[in-house]
Design a protein that fits this description.
Rossmann fold; 13 helices; about 325 residues; 434 Repressor (Amino-terminal Domain); four-stranded parallel beta sheet; 3 domains; six-stranded parallel beta sheet; alpha/beta
Length: about 325
Protein backbone atom coordinates (compact mmCIF):
# COMPACT_ATOMS: atom_id res chain seq x y z
CA UNK A 1 0.00 0.00 0.00
CA UNK A 2 1.09 3.54 -0.69
CA UNK A 3 2.37 5.34 2.42
CA UNK A 4 0.35 8.32 3.62
CA UNK A 5 1.47 11.56 5.19
CA UNK A 6 -0.09 10.29 8.43
CA UNK A 7 2.30 7.31 8.33
CA UNK A 8 5.31 9.61 7.91
CA UNK A 9 4.15 11.80 10.80
CA UNK A 10 3.72 8.78 13.07
CA UNK A 11 7.12 7.30 12.13
CA UNK A 12 8.88 10.64 12.73
CA UNK A 13 6.91 11.44 15.88
CA UNK A 14 5.75 14.81 14.55
CA UNK A 15 2.53 16.38 13.33
CA UNK A 16 1.30 16.15 9.75
CA UNK A 17 1.72 19.94 9.50
CA UNK A 18 5.42 19.56 10.32
CA UNK A 19 5.80 16.88 7.64
CA UNK A 20 4.10 19.20 5.15
CA UNK A 21 6.41 22.08 6.08
CA UNK A 22 9.49 19.89 5.61
CA UNK A 23 8.31 18.54 2.25
CA UNK A 24 7.60 22.08 1.06
CA UNK A 25 11.07 23.24 2.17
CA UNK A 26 9.51 25.94 4.31
CA UNK A 27 11.80 27.98 6.61
CA UNK A 28 12.00 27.84 10.41
CA UNK A 29 12.10 24.06 10.70
CA UNK A 30 14.86 22.76 12.98
CA UNK A 31 17.52 20.67 11.24
CA UNK A 32 17.01 17.81 13.66
CA UNK A 33 13.27 17.80 12.92
CA UNK A 34 13.87 18.01 9.16
CA UNK A 35 16.26 15.05 9.29
CA UNK A 36 13.77 12.93 11.26
CA UNK A 37 11.02 13.61 8.76
CA UNK A 38 13.21 12.93 5.71
CA UNK A 39 14.49 9.69 7.28
CA UNK A 40 10.88 8.55 7.70
CA UNK A 41 10.04 9.62 4.14
CA UNK A 42 12.92 7.54 2.80
CA UNK A 43 12.14 4.53 4.99
CA UNK A 44 8.46 4.49 3.99
CA UNK A 45 9.22 5.47 0.35
CA UNK A 46 6.59 8.15 0.71
CA UNK A 47 5.61 10.15 -2.38
CA UNK A 48 3.38 13.20 -1.94
CA UNK A 49 -0.07 13.11 -3.50
CA UNK A 50 0.09 16.19 -5.70
CA UNK A 51 -3.67 16.39 -6.15
CA UNK A 52 -4.27 16.41 -2.41
CA UNK A 53 -1.52 18.96 -1.86
CA UNK A 54 -3.06 21.21 -4.50
CA UNK A 55 -6.52 21.09 -2.95
CA UNK A 56 -5.17 21.69 0.54
CA UNK A 57 -2.85 24.58 -0.30
CA UNK A 58 -4.54 26.17 -3.30
CA UNK A 59 -1.45 25.34 -5.34
CA UNK A 60 -1.02 23.20 -8.42
CA UNK A 61 2.57 22.17 -7.55
CA UNK A 62 3.37 22.76 -11.20
CA UNK A 63 5.78 25.27 -12.69
CA UNK A 64 6.10 26.05 -16.39
CA UNK A 65 9.16 26.58 -18.56
CA UNK A 66 7.98 29.30 -20.95
CA UNK A 67 10.10 29.50 -24.07
CA UNK A 68 10.37 30.62 -27.66
CA UNK A 69 13.99 29.71 -28.40
CA UNK A 70 15.10 27.96 -31.60
CA UNK A 71 18.09 26.25 -29.93
CA UNK A 72 16.92 22.80 -28.89
CA UNK A 73 20.25 22.03 -27.24
CA UNK A 74 20.00 25.09 -24.99
CA UNK A 75 16.38 24.30 -24.15
CA UNK A 76 17.19 20.70 -23.20
CA UNK A 77 20.02 21.79 -20.90
CA UNK A 78 17.79 24.32 -19.11
CA UNK A 79 15.04 21.72 -18.82
CA UNK A 80 17.43 19.19 -17.29
CA UNK A 81 18.42 21.54 -14.48
CA UNK A 82 14.83 22.55 -13.84
CA UNK A 83 13.76 18.92 -13.56
CA UNK A 84 16.41 18.33 -10.89
CA UNK A 85 15.10 21.23 -8.81
CA UNK A 86 11.47 20.18 -9.32
CA UNK A 87 12.21 16.61 -8.32
CA UNK A 88 13.94 17.71 -5.12
CA UNK A 89 11.00 19.95 -4.21
CA UNK A 90 8.12 17.64 -5.22
CA UNK A 91 7.00 19.81 -8.12
CA UNK A 92 6.04 18.95 -11.67
CA UNK A 93 7.38 20.75 -14.75
CA UNK A 94 5.46 21.53 -17.92
CA UNK A 95 6.92 22.92 -21.15
CA UNK A 96 5.05 25.92 -22.49
CA UNK A 97 6.04 27.18 -25.96
CA UNK A 98 4.52 30.60 -26.67
CA UNK A 99 4.52 32.97 -29.59
CA UNK A 100 3.74 30.47 -32.31
CA UNK A 101 3.09 31.91 -35.77
CA UNK A 102 -0.67 31.44 -35.46
CA UNK A 103 -1.14 32.81 -31.95
CA UNK A 104 -0.16 35.81 -29.92
CA UNK A 105 1.99 35.31 -26.83
CA UNK A 106 -0.62 36.45 -24.31
CA UNK A 107 -3.14 34.03 -25.81
CA UNK A 108 -0.64 31.19 -25.62
CA UNK A 109 0.06 32.00 -21.97
CA UNK A 110 -3.64 32.11 -21.20
CA UNK A 111 -4.01 28.57 -22.56
CA UNK A 112 -1.10 27.39 -20.40
CA UNK A 113 -2.78 28.73 -17.26
CA UNK A 114 -6.17 27.35 -18.22
CA UNK A 115 -4.74 23.85 -18.71
CA UNK A 116 -2.09 23.60 -15.99
CA UNK A 117 -2.58 26.54 -13.57
CA UNK A 118 1.16 26.67 -12.78
CA UNK A 119 2.22 28.27 -9.51
CA UNK A 120 4.90 30.20 -11.41
CA UNK A 121 7.02 30.22 -14.56
CA UNK A 122 10.66 30.35 -15.59
CA UNK A 123 11.41 32.49 -18.64
CA UNK A 124 14.37 31.96 -20.95
CA UNK A 125 15.64 34.39 -23.61
CA UNK A 126 14.26 36.07 -25.59
CA UNK A 127 11.04 35.92 -23.55
CA UNK A 128 12.86 37.15 -20.43
CA UNK A 129 12.60 40.66 -21.91
CA UNK A 130 9.43 40.33 -23.96
CA UNK A 131 6.97 43.13 -23.01
CA UNK A 132 3.70 41.25 -23.75
CA UNK A 133 4.88 38.22 -21.75
CA UNK A 134 6.07 40.29 -18.78
CA UNK A 135 2.91 42.40 -18.85
CA UNK A 136 0.69 39.29 -18.80
CA UNK A 137 2.54 37.76 -15.84
CA UNK A 138 2.60 41.00 -13.85
CA UNK A 139 -1.08 41.77 -14.52
CA UNK A 140 -2.07 38.31 -13.29
CA UNK A 141 0.32 38.44 -10.31
CA UNK A 142 2.19 35.30 -11.44
CA UNK A 143 5.60 34.67 -9.82
CA UNK A 144 8.33 34.27 -12.41
CA UNK A 145 12.10 33.87 -12.61
CA UNK A 146 14.27 34.92 -15.53
CA UNK A 147 17.37 33.40 -17.07
CA UNK A 148 19.76 36.03 -18.48
CA UNK A 149 17.44 39.09 -18.40
CA UNK A 150 18.67 42.42 -19.79
CA UNK A 151 18.05 44.11 -16.43
CA UNK A 152 18.92 41.52 -13.77
CA UNK A 153 18.69 44.07 -10.95
CA UNK A 154 14.91 44.19 -11.46
CA UNK A 155 14.29 40.42 -11.51
CA UNK A 156 14.88 37.15 -9.73
CA UNK A 157 16.61 34.26 -11.49
CA UNK A 158 20.15 33.77 -12.77
CA UNK A 159 22.61 35.74 -14.91
CA UNK A 160 26.17 35.62 -16.24
CA UNK A 161 28.57 38.30 -17.55
CA UNK A 162 28.35 37.32 -21.21
CA UNK A 163 30.24 40.37 -22.44
CA UNK A 164 33.26 39.48 -20.30
CA UNK A 165 33.03 35.89 -21.51
CA UNK A 166 33.18 36.91 -25.19
CA UNK A 167 35.98 39.35 -24.50
CA UNK A 168 38.05 36.49 -23.07
CA UNK A 169 37.20 34.22 -26.00
CA UNK A 170 38.14 36.89 -28.53
CA UNK A 171 41.40 37.64 -26.76
CA UNK A 172 42.26 33.98 -27.17
CA UNK A 173 41.61 34.14 -30.93
CA UNK A 174 43.65 37.32 -31.26
CA UNK A 175 46.49 35.71 -29.30
CA UNK A 176 46.47 32.87 -31.86
CA UNK A 177 47.15 35.48 -34.55
CA UNK A 178 43.65 36.12 -35.93
CA UNK A 179 42.99 39.68 -37.03
CA UNK A 180 40.08 39.25 -39.44
CA UNK A 181 37.44 37.78 -37.14
CA UNK A 182 33.77 37.65 -38.15
CA UNK A 183 30.74 37.55 -35.89
CA UNK A 184 27.31 35.99 -36.40
CA UNK A 185 24.82 37.77 -34.16
CA UNK A 186 21.74 36.34 -32.49
CA UNK A 187 18.18 37.72 -32.79
CA UNK A 188 18.07 41.47 -31.99
CA UNK A 189 15.37 41.03 -29.32
CA UNK A 190 17.61 38.63 -27.42
CA UNK A 191 19.67 40.27 -24.66
CA UNK A 192 22.51 37.85 -25.35
CA UNK A 193 22.80 39.24 -28.88
CA UNK A 194 23.71 42.66 -27.51
CA UNK A 195 26.04 41.44 -24.74
CA UNK A 196 27.97 39.07 -26.99
CA UNK A 197 28.28 41.62 -29.79
CA UNK A 198 29.58 44.14 -27.25
CA UNK A 199 32.23 41.66 -26.11
CA UNK A 200 33.23 41.16 -29.75
CA UNK A 201 33.56 44.92 -30.37
CA UNK A 202 35.33 45.59 -27.10
CA UNK A 203 37.94 42.89 -27.80
CA UNK A 204 38.71 44.23 -31.28
CA UNK A 205 39.05 47.81 -30.05
CA UNK A 206 41.19 46.71 -27.11
CA UNK A 207 43.54 45.03 -29.63
CA UNK A 208 43.61 48.15 -31.84
CA UNK A 209 41.53 46.48 -34.58
CA UNK A 210 38.67 48.10 -36.47
CA UNK A 211 35.15 46.64 -36.46
CA UNK A 212 34.58 45.72 -40.12
CA UNK A 213 30.82 45.85 -40.70
CA UNK A 214 30.97 43.34 -43.57
CA UNK A 215 32.25 40.77 -41.07
CA UNK A 216 29.14 41.12 -38.86
CA UNK A 217 26.09 39.22 -40.11
CA UNK A 218 22.70 38.44 -38.64
CA UNK A 219 21.75 34.97 -37.44
CA UNK A 220 18.77 33.49 -35.62
CA UNK A 221 20.37 31.13 -33.05
CA UNK A 222 19.46 28.16 -35.26
CA UNK A 223 21.66 25.64 -37.07
CA UNK A 224 20.13 26.63 -40.41
CA UNK A 225 20.85 30.32 -39.88
CA UNK A 226 24.46 29.37 -39.09
CA UNK A 227 24.79 27.67 -42.47
CA UNK A 228 23.33 30.71 -44.26
CA UNK A 229 25.46 33.23 -42.35
CA UNK A 230 28.56 31.08 -42.76
CA UNK A 231 28.10 31.00 -46.53
CA UNK A 232 27.72 34.78 -46.64
CA UNK A 233 31.00 35.26 -44.79
CA UNK A 234 32.88 32.66 -46.80
CA UNK A 235 31.65 34.29 -50.04
CA UNK A 236 33.46 37.55 -49.21
CA UNK A 237 36.40 38.53 -51.43
CA UNK A 238 38.46 38.63 -48.25
CA UNK A 239 36.88 36.00 -46.01
CA UNK A 240 37.68 35.97 -42.32
CA UNK A 241 40.25 33.66 -40.77
CA UNK A 242 37.95 33.01 -37.80
CA UNK A 243 34.21 33.15 -37.19
CA UNK A 244 32.65 33.63 -33.77
CA UNK A 245 29.00 32.60 -33.79
CA UNK A 246 26.84 33.79 -30.89
CA UNK A 247 25.75 30.25 -30.02
CA UNK A 248 26.89 26.67 -30.64
CA UNK A 249 24.06 25.77 -33.01
CA UNK A 250 25.05 28.53 -35.43
CA UNK A 251 28.74 27.62 -35.08
CA UNK A 252 27.88 24.03 -36.03
CA UNK A 253 26.08 25.39 -39.10
CA UNK A 254 29.22 27.35 -40.06
CA UNK A 255 31.30 24.16 -39.89
CA UNK A 256 28.76 22.47 -42.16
CA UNK A 257 28.96 25.36 -44.66
CA UNK A 258 32.76 25.23 -44.64
CA UNK A 259 32.88 21.46 -45.15
CA UNK A 260 30.47 21.66 -48.07
CA UNK A 261 32.98 23.98 -49.77
CA UNK A 262 35.84 21.58 -49.18
CA UNK A 263 37.35 23.78 -46.48
CA UNK A 264 38.97 22.18 -43.46
CA UNK A 265 38.24 23.44 -39.94
CA UNK A 266 40.44 24.79 -38.39
CA UNK A 267 43.14 24.71 -41.08
CA UNK A 268 41.25 26.96 -43.49
CA UNK A 269 38.84 28.67 -41.09
CA UNK A 270 38.60 28.70 -37.29
CA UNK A 271 35.11 28.52 -35.78
CA UNK A 272 33.87 29.09 -32.23
CA UNK A 273 30.53 29.41 -30.49
CA UNK A 274 28.88 30.11 -27.14
CA UNK A 275 27.03 27.97 -24.55
CA UNK A 276 28.94 24.65 -24.59
CA UNK A 277 25.79 22.66 -25.22
CA UNK A 278 26.28 18.94 -26.09
CA UNK A 279 26.59 19.70 -29.82
CA UNK A 280 29.89 21.51 -29.09
CA UNK A 281 31.44 18.26 -27.90
CA UNK A 282 29.71 15.91 -30.32
CA UNK A 283 30.57 17.51 -33.67
CA UNK A 284 33.93 17.19 -35.41
CA UNK A 285 36.11 19.04 -34.87
CA UNK A 286 35.01 19.66 -31.29
CA UNK A 287 33.99 23.28 -30.86
CA UNK A 288 35.85 26.06 -29.09
CA UNK A 289 33.19 27.86 -27.08
CA UNK A 290 32.18 29.64 -23.90
CA UNK A 291 30.84 27.30 -21.28
CA UNK A 292 27.97 28.71 -19.34
CA UNK A 293 26.54 26.25 -16.79
CA UNK A 294 23.22 26.05 -18.61
CA UNK A 295 21.76 23.12 -16.70
CA UNK A 296 22.79 24.66 -13.39
CA UNK A 297 21.24 27.95 -14.47
CA UNK A 298 17.94 26.15 -15.01
CA UNK A 299 18.19 24.58 -11.56
CA UNK A 300 19.09 27.84 -9.82
CA UNK A 301 16.35 29.83 -11.55
CA UNK A 302 13.82 27.21 -10.47
CA UNK A 303 14.99 27.41 -6.85
CA UNK A 304 14.62 31.22 -6.90
CA UNK A 305 11.12 30.84 -8.34
CA UNK A 306 10.09 28.30 -5.68
CA UNK A 307 11.39 30.62 -2.98
CA UNK A 308 9.28 33.46 -4.41
CA UNK A 309 6.20 31.22 -4.60
CA UNK A 310 6.57 30.40 -0.90
CA UNK A 311 7.28 33.96 0.23
CA UNK A 312 6.47 37.16 -1.65
CA UNK A 313 9.80 38.87 -0.86
CA UNK A 314 12.04 35.82 -1.25
CA UNK A 315 14.29 34.92 -4.16
CA UNK A 316 17.01 36.93 -5.86
CA UNK A 317 19.31 37.16 -8.86
CA UNK A 318 22.10 34.58 -8.74
CA UNK A 319 25.32 35.21 -10.69
CA UNK A 320 27.22 32.30 -12.25
CA UNK A 321 30.72 32.17 -13.71
CA UNK A 322 31.75 31.32 -17.28
CA UNK A 323 34.65 29.31 -18.68
CA UNK A 324 36.28 29.64 -22.11
CA UNK A 325 37.02 26.21 -23.57
CA UNK A 326 39.47 26.00 -26.48
CA UNK A 327 39.07 22.83 -28.53
CA UNK A 328 40.02 21.58 -32.00
CA UNK A 329 37.92 24.01 -34.06
CA UNK A 330 40.38 26.91 -33.65
CA UNK A 331 44.09 27.36 -34.31
CA UNK A 332 46.54 29.97 -35.56
CA UNK A 333 45.58 31.15 -39.07
CA UNK A 334 47.50 29.68 -42.01
CA UNK A 335 46.84 32.82 -44.05
CA UNK A 336 46.86 36.51 -43.15
Amino acid sequence: MRSRIEDVAAAAGVSMKTVSRVLNNEPNVRDEMRQRVMKAVEKLQYRPNLSARSLAGQRSYVIALVYNNPSRNYLMEIQSGMLDACRDNHYNLVLAPVGTPKQRKAEDLKVVFEHFAPDGVVLIPPLTDDPPVLEFLEQHDVPFACIAPKHPQDRIGVSMDETAAVLELMEGLIAQGHRRIAHIKGPPAHGACQWRFKGYRDALRKAGLDVDEELVVQGAFSYESGIEAGNRLLDLKRPPTAIFAANDDMAAGVIRAACERGLAVPRDISVCGFDDTPIARHIYPALTTVRQPTSEMGRLATLQLLARIRAAEAGGMVHVEHEVVFRESTQAPTRR
